[in-house]
Amino acid sequence: MDTPPPLEPLPEDWTRALAVVAHPDDMEFGSAAAVAHWTAQGKEVIYCMVTSGEAGIDSMDPDECRRVREAEEIESARIVGVDTVEFLHQPDGILEYGVPLRREIAAVVRKHRPEIVITGNFHETFGGRMLNQADHIATGRAVLDAVRDAGNRWVFPEQVVDGVEPWGGVKAVWVGGSPEAGHGVDTTDTFDKGVDSLAAHAAYIEGLGWENWDPREFLEGFGRQTGQRMGVAFATAFEVYPLGWGD
Question: Angle, to 10 degrees, between the axis of helix 191-199 and the axis of helix 215-228?
């Protein structure tokens, strides 16, 4: 088996990032420790959940599940220094890539005006034969288009009212959990916060029915493997999509 190439450190010359993912828990299954690293530097990270994960617990009615999962996400975000968590309340499990989803995400980008946008893996697999989930694919694809939509005054012009302006200041989209990742973040000092952030999704984890599943053990496996590619104990990997001309 070929040895994966070293990861290039992500730039840290930015102050505000917006993370847009499909479900509560998507950030916590890998990227939360990186968020804790950035917020510890004084950077602002905002979370946007496209759904509330209401279809994620088989034994729980969707209305109750929505309430529980939103509360768990708000707490898990707090653990890693994220104060703002927004929910778009799109239907869990049946998201579709297209103009309506791009419109929703573009509005959030215009509202928060980030320099970096973070999303989750939207490739067909997580590597090898491990298939990705449809909501992840739809959301990530829509994010890539929506960050460009947000900068065009004539795309979704109905949003450009009451002081809202187009925002073309996103430097790059960073995709966590991508099998094509070429960049990384040293999370050695914030790994424990990432574990605690995932553990905050207690109801969801219990609902999965994974016997003897341990958040720390799960994250250590990926974190150590990625860390080896940066020469550190733990790291988180990202695929980078630059948005500037010539980047």
Answer: 150
Nearest to 57, CA basis, from 30, 20, 24, 85: 24
Q: What is the largest CA-CA distance in the chain?
A: 56
Count Cβ atoms within 10 A of the Cβ of residue 91 and give its class: 0-12 exposed, 13-18 middle, 19 or more buried: middle
- Of 197, 217, 193, the closest CA to residue 37 belongs to 193
CA–CA separation, 55 and 24 (whole Å): 11
Q: Which structural domains are found in the chain, ordered by start?
A: 15-242 (3.40.50.10320)
Q: How many CA atoms lie within 13 A of 32 on its CB side?
A: 30
Residues 6+ apart with CB under 8 A from 62: 54, 55, 92
Tokens of 9: 């450190």
Backbone angles phi, psi at 242, to 5 degrees: -70, 150
**pLDDT tens digits, one per residue of 28-58:** 998 999 999 999 999 999 999 999 999 999 9
- pLDDT 10s digits, 165-184: 999 999 999 999 999 999 99
Residues in the chain: 247
178-181 — which CB contacts under 8 Å span 24+ positions? 178/121, 178/123, 178/237, 178/238, 178/239, 179/121, 179/123, 179/125, 179/126, 179/127, 180/123, 180/239, 181/7, 181/237, 181/238, 181/239
Distance separating alpha carbons of residues 164 and 129, to the nearest angstrom? 43
pTM: 0.96
Question: What does the block give as tokens for 136?
Answer: 């992840």
